[in-house]
Design a protein that fits this description.
385 residues, mainly alpha, Ammonium transporter fold
Length: 385
Amino acid sequence: MRNLYSRAVKFAAMTMTDIARESGHRAGFCDCEYKILGEYIMSELFKVSSNPHIRSRATTNGLMLAVIIALMPAAGFGIYNFGPRAIAVILVTIISTVLTEFLFGLYKCGKNRPQEKETRSGEKSVSGMEQVSLVKTIFEKTTITDLSAVVTGLLLALNLPVTMPLWMAALGGVFAILVVKMLFGGLGQNFMNPALAARCFLLLSFPTAMTAFDCDIYTGATPLAALKAGEQVDTLNMFIGRTAGTIGETSVIALLIGACFLILMGVIDFRIPGSYIGTFILFVIIFGGHGFDPVYLAAQISGGGLMLGAFFMATDYVTRPITIKGQYVFGIFLGLMTGIFRIFGPGAEGVSYAIILGNLLVPLIEKFTKPTAFGYRKGGKHGEK
């Protein structure tokens, strides 16, 4: 067997010209060995793919479907809490994101459409095979089936107030997919979370609409704004979700149910959310002016988009660090920035801006937290052992 393997290595080292020139008998192989060797080369040596070479049964649409399922409790409670208007906002954002991604895919396919050929009668037409090839290309290059656009639209809707004009919500969906995602190469190439980038875009473009939380059920400031103004808040209602706010951020219970589902399914882990929330708690204790006040801490944790951001947006595979140390550093940075924005900033919230800034620093974080290869000294030059 070892002799056969050594012959296989020697034979595989030949160029394609040599393989074509040499027959199996001249290379010293019998017919059965040559057949086994050919099958080995075709099945193993000619498999070409980019690194990392990790085998997993997880698929993109499977992961996205798990995220959608995990967001259902928060979305369902938002609909129950704010009424049918929340359904309209959710549907508009999802339709706008999916439609934008589909149209962009059609545009890319249209650039490579087959050329019309002139027939004998002088008419221009495209052959049937070329039309079938074009349709096949459209289905292959259209990425809406991976459900990532649905996740982006759903997350964006959960970050919007229920009174948001529908055309603004649709504009946010277009911005998230077209500007943040597709123009940078599509899924896996975006440098920041599309849903959060769209929320920040809408917040800067339409600040009045994005901070209008008065509706038929709730009036007045959000609990986080009231807390910043020094007023008393009902922590239990904040934990359950019977408060004003965006559609998906109010109920901590619903968000924790979805987060536990993702952790149990192995989609996310507790590194980033744990370091994020833990660092934020320490920052509030030290700089919040209330010391270790459990009621004040519970209100800070339950209010705003901290839980939604920590478990569903900071853990985004594309925009988080891939190194283990980097994920802890990333979570600590988010906790510090959220604390700075909430305690010292003019506004009551800061989760969105903290995560966006963290996304921009991910390449730098990965550079300094890259693990040392086995057999190399830490801090040594490349190739130095």
